[in-house]
Amino acid sequence: MKHFLTLKDYSKEEILEIIEIAVQIKKETKEKIFKDYMPKQTLGMIFEKSSTRTRVSFETGIYQLGGIGLFLSSNDIQLGRGEPICDTSRVISRMTDMIMIRNDSQEELEEFAFFSKVPIINGLTDKYHPVQLMADYITIKEHGLEDNIVAAYIGDGNNMTHSWLMLAAKLGFDLRIATPAGYEVDEDILNEALEFAKISGADITITNDPKAAVKDATVVTTDTWVSMGQEEEKEQRIKDFAGFIVDSKLMNLASDKAIFLHCLPAYRDYEVSEEVFEKFSETIFSEAENRLHAQKGIMVYLDRNRNND
Ligand code: CP
Ligand code: NVA
Question: How many Å lie between the centroid of ligand 1 and the Cα of residue 198?
Answer without folding.
Answer: 31
